[in-house]
């Protein structure tokens, strides 16, 4: 960090305006994709991020980075009443920083039971999402320091995981109570042979000094961004105002962006030679899709054909979150 070294190569909207890139990305998953795609020096990659890098002492210490009063990373938004959820009001928390909400979350690494993925594959027809298909990527992404001998865990990936000591003295008594109740007790919740419910010791994505390992830290660190600056551009402090979609081919030709905030209304445009990959999270991605169009009912409640027709036919930026509901998940044994 300046003045002790080179700063992170953040770019502004003026730096990317009018340029052409092979790939456009954004969000926490965008850090992973930008890192993997930019391994090829012959392609140009643009990562768009609403927040800034904000890599400082507070953002690295887990207890402080989760505190919205100290880290400067967290956004808190109160939603309006949702008729589809018994008129409840929800409070949402997310981060505006490179790496998304991995900069403020609890850093727990949980894969979920294999039965969930197999249900997607077998019942929903998502053949590439079965457990045998996704499990190699779990291992590839992690370095399970806390389970060095586990064959089902990865040991060479960028995300270090550890099992920290019990933070409170009463935690061992909870484990004792679980055993007396004859609940399943597992040392590793990511063991594919473990039960779907029970008492588990959880892994956290932290380094040897107890500092947070986010998507930014693991895949798009300052060293990586500087080394690939010739073909990787990280543009921060911007929001996507609309996608430039060819209504005939339904291909995204480019992206219009503006500085985040409400004061600067100037629009900037970047063209896509290859693909635009939306990976802005469960809230950000549909929000971007709906900004170009007038959508009166949730896209997720429409069939694919109806959603496509609504997105192509409608016009004008109008977003309505009042009717949005949130899915529930059920666990299955392996």
What class do helices, strands and sheet pairing give? alpha/beta
If you average the pLDDT, what whole number results?
82
Number of extended strands: 15
**Uncertain regions: pLDDT < 50 for 5+ in a row?**
293-334
N-to-C series of helices and strands: EHEHEHHEEEHHEEHEEEHHEEEEHH
How far apart lie the N and C ends? 46 Å
Structural shape: globular
Classify the fold: give the CATH topology of the largest domain. Answer: FAD/NAD(P)-binding domain
Rg of Cα set: 22 Å
- Which CATH first-tier class of the largest domain would you pick? Alpha Beta
Number of helices: 11
Across the major sheet, the strand order is: 1-12-3-2-15-14-13
Largest sheet: 7 strands, mixed
Under the CATH scheme, the architecture of the largest domain is 3-Layer(bba) Sandwich
The total number of structural domains is: 3
Percentage of residues in helical conformation: 25-40%
Walk me through this protein's architecture.
The protein is α/β, with parallel strands linked by helices and 334 residues long. It folds into 3 domains: 10-56 and 216-295, FAD/NAD(P)-binding domain (3-Layer(bba) Sandwich), CATH 3.50.50; 59-103, no CATH class; 114-211, Arc Repressor Mutant (Orthogonal Bundle). 25% of the residues lie in helices and 21% in strands. It contains 11 helices and 15 strands. It has helices at 13-16, 28-37, 57-60, 62-65, 114-123, 131-141, 171-180, 215-219, 222-227, 281-291, 304-313; strands at residues 10-11, 20-26, 45-49, 74-78, 91-95, 108-109, 142-144, 159-161, 185-186, 199-200, 203-204, 232-236, 238-246, 251-259, 268-276. Strands 1-12-3-2-15-14-13 form a 7-stranded mixed β-sheet. The protein is globular and about 65 Å long. The relative contact order is 0.19. Residues 293-334 have low confidence and may be disordered. InterPro entries: FAD/NAD-bd_sf (IPR036188), GMC_OxRdtase (IPR012132), GMC_OxRdtase_N (IPR000172). It comes from Trichoderma harzianum (Hypocrea lixii). This is Glucose-methanol-choline oxidoreductase N-terminal domain-containing protein.
């Amino acid at each position: 960090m300046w003045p002790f070294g080179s700063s992170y190569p953040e770019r502004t909207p003026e730096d990317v305006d009018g340029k052409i890139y092979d790939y456009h990305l954004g969000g926490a998953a965008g850090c992973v994709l930008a890192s993997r795609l930019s391994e090829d020096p012959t392609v140009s990659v643009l990562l768009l991020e609403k927040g800034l890098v904000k890599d400082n002492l507070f953002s690295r210490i887990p207890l402080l980075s989760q505190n919205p009063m100290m880290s400067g990373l967290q956004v808190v938004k109160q939603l309006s009443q949702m008729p589809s959820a018994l008129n409840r009001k929800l409070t949402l928390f997310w981060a505006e920083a490179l790496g998304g909400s991995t900069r403020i979350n609890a850093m727990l690494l949980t894969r979920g039971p294999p039965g969930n993925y197999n249900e997607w594959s077998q019942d929903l027809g998502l053949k590439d999402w079965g457990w045998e298909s996704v499990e190699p990527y779990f291992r590839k992404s992690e370095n399970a320091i806390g389970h060095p001998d586990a064959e089902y865990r990865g040991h060479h990936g960028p995300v270090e995981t550890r099992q920290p000591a019990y933070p409170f003295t009463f935690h061992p008594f909870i484990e004792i109570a679980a055993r007396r109740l004859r609940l399943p007790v597992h040392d590793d919740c990511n063991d594919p042979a473990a039960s779907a419910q029970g008492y588990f010791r959880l892994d956290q994505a932290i380094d040897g000094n107890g500092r947070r390992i986010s998507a930014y830290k693991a895949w798009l660190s300052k060293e990586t961004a500087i080394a690939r600056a010739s073909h990787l551009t990280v543009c921060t402090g911007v929001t996507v105002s609309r996608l430039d979609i060819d209504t005939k081919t339904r291909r995204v030709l480019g992206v219009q962006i503006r500085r985040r905030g409400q004061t600067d209304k100037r629009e900037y445009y970047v063209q896509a030679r290859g693909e635009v990959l939306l990976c802005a999270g469960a809230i950000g991605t549909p929000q971007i899709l709906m900004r170009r169009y007038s959508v009166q009912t949730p896209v997720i409640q429409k069939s694919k054909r109806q959603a496509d027709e609504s997105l192509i036919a409608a016009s004008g930026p109008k977003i309505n979150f009042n009717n949005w509901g949130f899915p529930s998940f059920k666990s299955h044994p392996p």
